[in-house]
Each structure stands twice: as C-alpha cells, then as structure tokens.
Amino acid sequence: MKCTVGRGRTLALVLVVAFAASCGSDGEPAGGRAELSQFDPRVNALLERMTLEEKVGQMTQAEIDKLASLEEIPELALGSLLNGGDADPKDGNSVEAWARMYDDAQRAALRSRLGIPLLYGVDAVHGHSNVVGAVIFPHNIGLGCTRNPALVEEIAHITAKEMRATGMHWTFAPVLAVARDERWGRTYESFSENPDVVAELATAAVRGFQRGGLAHPEAVLATAKHFLADGGTQFGTSTPPLMLIDQGDARIDEGELRAIHLLPYRRALQAGVGSMMASYSSWNGAKVHGHRYLLTELLKNELGFEGFVVSDYLAIDQLDPDYKEAVRRAITAGIDMGMVAHRYREFIQVLLELVREGAVPMERIEDAVRRILRVKFAMGLMDRDARLWSNPALQALVGSPEHRAVARRAVRESLVLLKNQNRLLPLRKDLGRLHLAGVHADNLGYQCGGWTITWRGGSGRITEGTTILEAVRAAVSPTTTVTYSFDGSGADGADVVVAVIGERPYAEYTGDRADLSVESRQVEMIRTLARSGVPLVVVLVTGRPLILGDVFELADALLVAWLPGTEGQGVADVLFGDAAPVGKLSFSWPRSMEQVPVNVGDPVYDPLFPFGFGLTYDRETGG
Ligand code: BGC
Ligand code: BGC
Q1: How many CB atoms lie within 10 A of CB 176?
Q2: What residues does ligand 1 touch, defined as CB less than 6 Å away?
C-alpha cells in the first residue's frame, strides 16, 4: 500500500499534515501497524481480575499431544497450544480431525474460571502444511526467485483461509531469516540472501496472513521468526555432531546485524506483524533467548513492537542446565510466552516461584500477559463469536482447484533456468518418446521437502498432489510415449531425457551439511545418461544451490525447481513452454565448497551464477 493523497482541490493543509503524520518513516501507512495498545483499557480491566496463576498460564504454550487430558487447559488456565511439526490430531490427519481437535481444545479453554480463549499456533509455512489434503506451495527459497510480492501475499491469504477452515489462527510464519550460508539446513525457509528481497516478500506474507486486519474472520496472526540473525550463524559454531550451523553463533558486529538481519523485522513491524519468535541462535556468544538488549531494548523499546515474543520450541531449556534459572533469564530478557511443549507444568511452577521470590518482577509478568491479551482482543477471540471456531464453510476450499491453481502459478514463476544449450527447452509436446529418470521425478514427498505433513517431510504419496512425472504425462500429446526409470536405465532411443535429481527432505539441523555436492549416485546416473547421446534436461529438486560438478557440463539444459510443493504441473508448464521461465536466483550459486559462503556484496564475488541470474525463452518462437 502506498500513501497517496486524494485529488480533492480544496485539501486543507491541516489534512495534509495529519495524513503525513499517519505515514510511517518508510512512507508506509501507520494503519498497517497493529496499534495493539489501543486494546489496553480492556486488557487492563481483565488483568485486574486475574490471579498470578492465571497470568502465568497465559504465558504458557503447551503442545497438544503432550497434554494428559484437555482438562489440563482449564485447570492450568493455559493461554496457548501448538501442534509442532510432528503433532497430528489423535484421530487421524484430515481437515475434519484438525478442526475437531482445535474446537475441543478451545471449548476446554472456555471452561476455565475466566474463560479466556487459547491462541492456537501451527507451522503453516508453505500452505497449511501439516494437514493432509492442504495445498502445498513452494518453499520460500523458490518464492524468493519469483520476486513477486503480490503472489506471495495471495499465497499467505490462501494459507490463512485453509487454516481457518480448521480453526487455527496463528501461523509460525513467515521466516525472516536472511540465510547467508547454504550449508544451513533452513536455507530453503529463507526467501533470499539479500535483506531487501526478504523484507519485500516477508512483508507481503504478513499482509496476506493478516489481510483485513487481525480481527478479520479469515485472517491469521503471523509470526516474524526467528529474531534475530538466525541466518547469520557461522559454520562450526553449533553443537556437532547433531548440528553444524543451525542454532549457532552469529559473529557479526551490530552494524551488520542491523543492516542485514534487522531490516526485514523493521518492515514486518510496519506491516503490522503481531507476534515474533526468538531464535535458538546466539549473537556473539550470547543466546538470543536470554538477550535483554535484543528482545527488550531493541525490539520492544526502540522499534516499538507492541505484540508478544514467543520462545522457540524448548529453546528456553538451552539457557541454563537449571530450568528455573533458564526460565528466569528468558522471561527477564523479554520472552512473553514459553513454547514449552511437554514442560508446561514445570514452567508454570518455576515461574510462579520466581515471581513469589521476587526474582521476576510482577511488572514483567503483567507486560507479557498484556502483550498476549492485546492480540487476543485484537483478533476478536475475546468476543467469542464465530471467529473462535473452525469454519466449516471454508473446509471445501482446502486443497481446492482454485488454491492449487495459484500454487501451480507460483511453481512456474519460481523455476530458474540456468542453462539451455541449443535451445533444448521448451520441449515439444509431440515428441515420439520422452524418458524421465531419477527418484525425484515421481516422489511427491521429495518435491515438498521438510515441514510437510511431518517435521522432516517424507517420501512418496504423503498427501494429495501431482508429481513431475504425472504432470509430464498429462501434458504431452496422445501420441507421445513417456517412459520412466528411477535409476536412469532405459533412456536409449528416447528423443529427450529429463533427469530429476536433488536433495531428500530435511528440516532444521537435520539438513546441515558440510558438503553440498550433488550425490555421487546421481552424478553417475547423469554421466550414463549423457553417454547415451540423447538430449538431456536436468531438473533440480533442492532446498538450496548444490555444487553441480560435472552435472553442469553434461546437462544440455538445467532447470532449478527448488521445493515446488504439490503442484508438479508448474514444472511441466515451463518444460513444454506453456509458460516461460521468469525466476531469478535469490541466492548466489557457488562453484565449489571452497566458495561457500558466497553472498552478493562479498569483496571477491565470482560464483557460478550470480544473485539475480535466470535465463528465459520466448514463448512465441520457442527459442
Ligand atoms: C522451529 C520453529 C518452529 C517450532 C514449532 C522449532 O523447532 O525452530 O521454526 O516454529 O519448532 O514447530
Ligand atoms: C517437533 C518440531 C520441532 C522440533 C524441534 C520436533 O519433534 O515436531 O515442531 O520444531 O522437534 O527440534
């Protein structure tokens, strides 16, 4: 949105002044900002009626599958629940089961003394991505290559509607990480190595999630995560062998911290993001979760954030071996809500003790609860109307053709063409025989990547969608034979081979890698295919740039599909020229591991493909 002045000829100066004052420093309307403190009169009236136990309950987020029974929700006056990456409803993974689970939990919350509704959070990070049947969009790295904020906003809005169908109204998205080292297992969750691209697309996502304002029945609360500099950690500063770089230490000065990593947060704040998640990582040796300067002085005081900060999953535990001391440090630093999964009783108990002993000031508790309740009021949850419940009218939209059409477009726009020798692409639809090769050609789980149905993602038909092989079969003419082998065999005699190779799904530190080379088995397959002399298209299904080695020379055409999600047709659209490739690299593509990390702006910058690179072809001439 832009601040544009109306055309009225008699516009009084006073109006101009008032209008200018309502624009943020970047020319953004202040109205984008959540202005959450406007709810303080109601919040304060409620706070006065709350016992200390009820206040601490509001600050507690348990994971639903860790509860002994839903009766613990009113008993402990819990303020929030989440489903983490591996927590499904008890009675199966379906839209109806998710909605039932949500409604049952919310009903339980209303049975507490004050009947304060729950905030219910889930990682809807590329669609409502834990739910079988939901549309799965490309991961952020692919969306970064679209450079299309309107599309990213639409995707977030669709995700919000699919969430609301199940009642859930708080997504732990978007990721604002500016990933600076692709060895990081979360690189694909990052829109770009470039802070401006991250800022532009992340704010678009915030606008899409929170469209119409937090009170809108189809909006969900967005989370800017992970504050701060999760993408700036240094390789080798984490805790091996489990982690190599994830949750590590960002060894950078404050200038770089602000210029690269803080910028997207400033913008997300202007766009009105209502919650923030702290990062597991550290800044110059000090963990963010215990960092008062970052969480309170910078984020809340300097930037004026009025929403609340949630901890990351069991991240408080990492602050100190003594849990009570860990909780003390986190809460005094500025964490408002603890994502404590199974430790909810312990968290409540130690926090109550800390307050009673004076180790955590009552004002800090009230500030935290005030921030959480502001959001509950702003979202209309406290009004206990239809917005509080799952919306059956939206259920037919989950994974609907309209939603899948947007995802297919997103896939098309995210693909990056790196090489196209002899104008091999686009392919004709009436080739005699087209051979597809590689396990990634026909694996829906692989093309969705991590954070899909389960935390680390899966293999095969984990949800509803179209694989690249299925999409190719549907696209070609009736006279074309499509053959397929997972190992590349049977290519001889084909007119063209499309080999689909890449990474297997992972999430977070399980994707940390010291070596990003294409797997040797896959390189072998490409060598064999190239020897057959059949023109060779290589499609990469990957969460980040890989070291291509011989693959680059051997392929006639090279198309990066990233982690496209459920709509494989978007890949076929570009292979056959129904859409021209328009994607531009959102990450620099390194030549070798010695070059990693490589980022635009480095003093020596000589990657295989620079940031922004991407070929296209003319749709009309096919050339
Ligand atoms: C991740 C977060 C996620 C949370 C809840 C953590 O491990 O770092 O990104 O939102 O789990 O699933
Ligand atoms: C949970 C995720 C969480 C991760 C943290 C998994 O078991 O399902 O939500 O992000 O643990 O390491």
Answers
A1: 35
A2: 84-85, 123, 172, 225, 312-313, 508
